[in-house]
Structures
1.
Amino acid sequence: MYIKVSMNIKEIITKYPETKAVFENQGIQGLEDETVLQILEAYPLSEIMKLKKVDAAAFVSRLEESIKANRETSDITMKKEEKKENALSLLGLLPCPVRIPLLEGFQTFLQEHPAIEVNYELKAASSGLAWLKKDVIEANHVDQLADMFLSAGFDLFFDNKWMGKWKSEGIFEDMTGLAHYNTDFENEHISLKDPKGDYSMIGVVPAIFLVNKAALGSRKMPESWLDILSKEFENSISLPIADFDLFNSILVHIYKLYGQEGVTKLGKSLLSNLHPAQMIDAKEPAITIMPFFFSKMIKENGPMQVVWPKEGAIISPIFMLTKKNKQEALKPIVDFMAGKEVGNIISHQGLFPSIHPEVENPTAGKPFVWIGWDFIYSHDMGELLQDCETWFRKGAKRL
């Protein structure tokens, strides 16, 4: 155990900086401000979680997972000096809740297949994309790129400054061999399978609403993404800004659904005074938008209610890119990553629904929002993301 509920937030993030993103995703902002941190020193984590109406034990478990993902993986993450010459290369980011079990499963897979030689680095999603972008930017030839990439979100894989320029040369191919995706993602309303056969996926990170019924007051319970863009929810919503992949996905989906005006309204909805001094005074967001995984932390029969938006949960897909000229060598690794075992890990341990057709997702039957491949292929996603951030900030006026 790293964390005790008697510790305060300043003490925790000072000792374990990797937990900062977990607090921010829970709606606790302003952690770069020393004044805010000094205020937080007076309150133990147990009291903060009580005010946030969050199960303290479950939240501590989430903090522990974040720390373990960064501190206890030296035995299962390939060290630089251990890299083998002429081996396959795999780089990527994995959602924190499933990174350890997935890495452990991958290590077992490699032990069972000793002929496969691969150098891999799969960091926690909270570490950010900067290191991956550096690898892509510095590649002047296709052979300098990693043979396989895993990551959520749109900016790395679709931005023409990053992976988009390589993708346009036709060097990647979906080699999962899956003729059909899980019916949750292949039906009359949604189709996640890339029709051009370049990109593949292993699952998605869904965004849902957590509604604080006490802070909601006399306002009607929000049921849809359109509802939260209304004037009555201005300055009332916490967004997962620290979770860049999911936040960016929310921006582009809101643009697809409700245009530039919708993105600006989303900025207006952002709660401007979400810092601990006001939180202690019970100034709370009426709505927190968060990954579905966090709903596990909510106490039953408490003041917090999980709402699955009626249009569907906006998703950030976990993409996989594989070089077609390495298909024969990569195929066993692709089969593992896109297989039922990994599908069960991400779906049942992380609540990140799998695209594998044989996995029974915990979200079965619930709708999802997906911008669609036609939209992706008809837009410069890098430029669109920059535009969406500008429109959002214009609405927020304080970021």
2.
Amino acid sequence: MNSQSTAETFLDGFATILTDATSTGRHLTRDEIESRRALGARAAEAGLGWRTLVRAHLVASRDGWPRAADPDSVLTVVEQAVDAFADGYERAQRLVIRKEEAARREFIDDLLHGRGDPGQLAARSERFGLRLSRAHAVAVVEGPEEYDETDPVPRQVAGELFARFENRRILFTTKDGRMVYIAPADQDDVLTHFAKHAYAAAGQAQAAIGRPRPGTIGIGHSYEEALNALDVAQRMGLDEPLLRAADLLVFPVLARDRQALVDLVRNTVGPLEQARGGARPLLDTLTAYFDSGCVAAATARRLSLSVRALTYRLDRIHTLTGSDPTDPGHRYTLQTAVIGARLLDWPTRPLDPAGTST
């Protein structure tokens, strides 16, 4: 059965309405309008295209055109019938779209958080264009404001991505105010393009890409890595527009044993709190020194200091901590402690006596 003959099944009673209404010149009754709406809704639920349905109405109107009928009367009836049919069709289609969107968001939530049976998730994934037998990676973009999928920026990003990569098996959504993108691991160009385009569209945004992971659980892990990369970037003051979790593995390693990290910070750079003005100025000096490759002139320029003033600060750090920043033997411990302080947000958040940051 072709699409045209299938469409005709949703025109039940149309010829009778056309003949009866035009013979008296009346408008459609309430029951007739409701019958058209009901058929329109059924046609939408059956997945028939609107063009086919309009063509079927036009063919039926031509074939059932009452003899000697006033053309204006016939066209008025056709207009009313098609309008009611379209109303039912559009209402049902919106409902289908809302249900589909709810199902898609539920699937994404289950996928990103590792909920549900892996086999069932894999079966559901085909419906949304993913093959979970492959490894996937997740990119997360955090902008200057929170987004949902109805906002202009995510709509612009999604539209551009699907126009450019329409044949790729990819998934875009927003979650917790961020833009999230899932793509097969071998399509790094898609993930990178998403991150760069989202950065350009949002302005001052930052993107993070988790490591590729296989299976349903792997997507959740990649998502968590991307979120952790954004958190590390905020704590460490990293302002690169594109972060890769694989490049930041040292930070979760350091933070994994929190007690040891707190002890390292307290014992290594904790004495800087005795300095006039507190620990922050000297911590910032160490950060700039290490970021400048331990080159005094470059560090001084970065801090807008003279080399002599910088040298005084480095000597003061040596005096307070017992560790010399210019000594390669002390440098690694000091730099690790400075990184730990930034991860713990110390000294903004104090370290309590029990050994954990409050």
3.
Amino acid sequence: MSPSRVLVLNSGSSSVKYQLLDMSDSSRLALGLVERIGEQSSRLKHTPLARGGESREWTGPIADHDAALKAVAEELAKDGLGLDSPELAAIGHRVVHGGKTFTEPTVVDEAVLAEIERLIPVAPLHNPANLTGIRTARALRPDLPQVAVFDTAFHTTMPESAARYAIDVKTADEHRIRRYGFHGTSHAYVSRATAKLLGRAPEDVNVIVLHLGNGASASAVRGGKCVDTSMGLTPLEGLVMGTRSGDMDPAVIFHLMRVGKMSTDEIDTLLNKKSGLIGLCGDNDMREIRRRIDEGDEQARLAFDIYIHRLKKYIGAYYAVLGRVDAVAFTAGVGENASAVREAAVAGLEGLGLAVDGALNAVRGDEPRLISPGDARVAVAVVPTDEELEIATQTYALVGR
């Protein structure tokens, strides 16, 4: 029997998330997280799932990503799932930015590494950490295929009319300024899962996908291909998010520089880390915001209303882009769990065929489900995302080819 296991790695600047999956049946064998890498109080939590084992957790200094991955390998080995296993077919890596170059999952070689590194200026927070994870994994298993799966790849099917900004073409091309989009693995997975929920082929379905977590993005998917998405050159554009502003007049930046005497770094921090919901009301947890609203907190209510207003605008805009919409799918932490967000997002859009059934919307669960009335013209769905499974699926398909 050929190897069927795929280890999925998501390397952040100070963390590594991982899952080991068996692609013969898409089952999870283990998962875990290493965080606070480089600190004395680093933490590793490992959960073996294959044999119903209990989670193991320890804290202590983990100097760098090399040490982190070696610690992960040791934990997997304790469960008979080590990186030296002949059943391991490949390691799949989440890479945030692939630019225009990478339109599909790619086996990593030196040329691929060089191109990911070249894209660091447009993804300075993410691509360096992704590179570190790949290089470390290659050093541990140089004989094993390492596959990069790019957040931006699903969005490379956008037409130029959606991807281009209306600025001088020569300047845009010189500095690679265009709309790339992010959360692509989630949008790809959810759009296909929504079609399956409807009992139809992805190429026959038009879906608006709303990935609502601390980071949030929307996409218009026509026949399985993305034709527009809300994030742009960076993940800052688009919806109101937990700490990011989303869409904003760019002249605000010049105003803050000239009048507020703020530096570019200060403005960057403001818009990416101190804006969105946390900037509006001091909280970026939707559960806490809803609790405050229930207690009559007007600041929380305003933050929620601004969040919903922007979300509703994108639903309407992508309805216009697609022309025909078969489903609107909510996913990620807020999208999957905040029934009040889902209800408010489609309220007043009955003329577009959108509505939620209150009883169905109140149900919580881990499976894809419809929350619209049975006679609704457009299906409204909750579809839990599974980015790790998507990365593993793409990795395994590529290695199989």
